[in-house]
Prior knowledge:
This protein is of the alpha/beta class.
Amino acid sequence: MDLILDTHVLLWLTTGDRKLSRKLIDKLADPDTRCFVSAVTAWEFSDLHFRGRLPGSVALPRVQERLGFDILDFPADLWKEAERLPSVHGDPVDRMLVAHARMLDMTLVTADKNMRRYPVQSLW
């Protein structure tokens, strides 16, 4: 299974937060599971780090090295998929991430109940 991680999930994996779901932890233990991070999530994570909202030890290159995920390029025409999404909520970064998951037929990993309301395969 190919998973695409939401920003908070990436942070929680980095810090070992107890908020991580048992379902996710079990799925990550499966050798057939591959994790990916969208370029939009990488940007959001790096921006949070730049603004001092993350601990100093969680710079994205270190996190990527430790967790071993690939960062996915953001397709130029992804806006078309995002534009077709229903109006669940107004966060454009979340809409782009959902669109990216849909376009690549990946499972979106998020604890965000609003994001799981979109027509996208999700895991939590």
